[in-house]
Structures are given as structure tokens and as C-alpha cells.
Amino acid sequence: MKVLITYDRRLLGTRFTKLKQRIDEHFPSRWHCYDSSYIVSTDLGVTQVRELLLPALDTNDSLLVIELGNKWAGIGLSEKNRSWLDLD
To answer: What are the strands, taking DSSP E only, across 8-51?
Structure first.
């Protein structure tokens, strides 16, 4: 399944780097689609993804993890990214 991970831009410096490192380490199949958003392919549930990323966050940070369905629309996406979104 595909999961959207998005976080508030209050993540700066070391904390921002820690979060990006955790995402990179635990989700080899990923797309850093926008500045503060990733779409990852995983077998983990959304709560498990949140718990995995929690150590990289501070109490004032915001994180949202959403399971994506197979219906989507976009513009300006590369063929590679469109194809990746269609894979499950």
C-alpha cells in the first residue's frame, strides 16, 4: 500500500534531518514528492508508521500519516512517478 507522510515545517535543523533519515532508512520505496511530504510503499499500517517516526519528533511538531487509495489525480508529475503511484 501507499502511505502519505506529511509534516509541519516547524521541523528544523537536527530534528528535520532525523525525520528524513528515519524515512530514508525504513522506506526504501519512497517519493519525496513535496518539501514536507513523502509517499512511501509499505506493509505497515498508518499507526505503525507514525510510531516508527515518533522518536524523530518534538512535542510541538505535527505529523500526519494517511493510507492512500488507488484513485488519485495530479498535474506536473513525471511518467516515473505516475507509474510508481499506480503500482501496489
So the answer is: 30-34, 37-41
Helix 46-53 / helix 13-26 crossing angle, nearest 10 deg: 130
CB 39 within 8 A of CB 31: yes
Domain with 60 in it: 2-86
pTM here?
0.85
d(CA 49, CA 41): 11
CATH code: domain of residue 26:
3.30.70.2360
Q: Into how many domains does the chain fold? A: 1
- Indicate if the pLDDT at residue 13 is higher than 70: no
**15 Cβ neighbours under 8 A, 6+ residues apart:** 56, 57, 58, 61
